[in-house]
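Dear colleague,

Following up on yesterday's call, I've attached the two folding results inline so they're easy to grep. Please treat them as preliminary; we haven't cross-checked anything against experimental data yet. The first protein's sequence and structure tokens come first.
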Amino acid sequence: MASGNPVLREKAFQGLPVTGERMTLNGTVTRTALLLVLAVITGGWTWQRFADVAAGGGNLDAALAAISPFMWGGLLVGLVLALVTTFVQRWAGVTAPLYAIAEGFALGGISAVMNLRFPGIVLQAVMLTVGVLAVMLVAYRSGWIKVTDKFRLGVVAATGGIALLYVVDMALRAFTHIQIPFIHETGAIGIGFSLLVVGLAALNLVLDFDMIDRAAEAGAPKYMEWYGAFALMVTLVWLYMELLRLLSKARR
């Protein structure tokens, strides 16, 4: 793997027929911005539905019931679309926007619940996500961060370790009453762990940029800009969720 991102593999860009224009990093970033707009639109709709039910005299349970189909539906449809996009890259021009729409429904519901508990936390997380994306892009394009083999290996290995840790924690919580404490606790260790994961997600953006840049230099076709944008969305969703976790720990 050239990146810690599970959908951004080097072989995804190999052996593709090139006809006409070729992909660029700038084109990929532009399409990523379009996907983010779609996610914000559908996320705003789910958020507003939650707020309307809660403000209309319904309790929290009623508001959650009103958005649950969209949250779970968005997660499941998003997973299916992610798998389709990963295996059939040529369809990314259609499946990537649909993935962003589905993820928006899910993230909008999660964000509405989090903002009810910690007012203002979502705006902070969104601004930080966009800020981190901009800073990492500038750092990469200006050469402030050099992507070497050792850098790539370290980030990929650390990302795999975090992913394995999360899987173990989910299994323990599902089948036992045990949970890995520093993932969820609010003390110095818990906040430090979340800071580490946020930093790792940010570094994965750099690896994503590098992989997309190298694919463009190798002459990948234009439609792969949508695939690259989809891959960036996967990392950005992870970054946003980790920022929500970090900010909620700090609030608590």
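Below is the second protein, in the same order (sequence, then structure):
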Amino acid sequence: MSAAITIRVYYEDTDLAGIVYYANYLKFIERGRTEWVRALGIDQSRLKAEDGIVFAVRRIEADYLRPARFDDELTVETRLDTVTGARIALEQTVRRQGELLFQALVTLVCLTDAGHAARLPAELRRKLAPALH
């Protein structure tokens, strides 16, 4: 399963050169992941309250390919890559009118309230299974 959101580049997103500051792409893809999880029907607040589980980024491999600029309309796409018992890997891209600007492979893990690694809850794995096919 994939999900896409649209983001407008604001002045605050740019650096002195007038292009999107590199760290802001991480914010953009965070929003994309949040909406992807929501589209799967996963309530992250309920997951934390009932199971004591939160998602955390374990690793990001990112490629900055072309600059985005003030007032650009960007599309952030999130697609499930792999799922294991304790990890979710996602492919994320940022495009401007179809042109690939940024791509990342993001590995998520589940953490307990105490900050310890946890296995993905069975309900979550069931919701992710159809997205792998």
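For the second protein, one point worth flagging: The mean pLDDT is 93.

Best wishes,
A.L.
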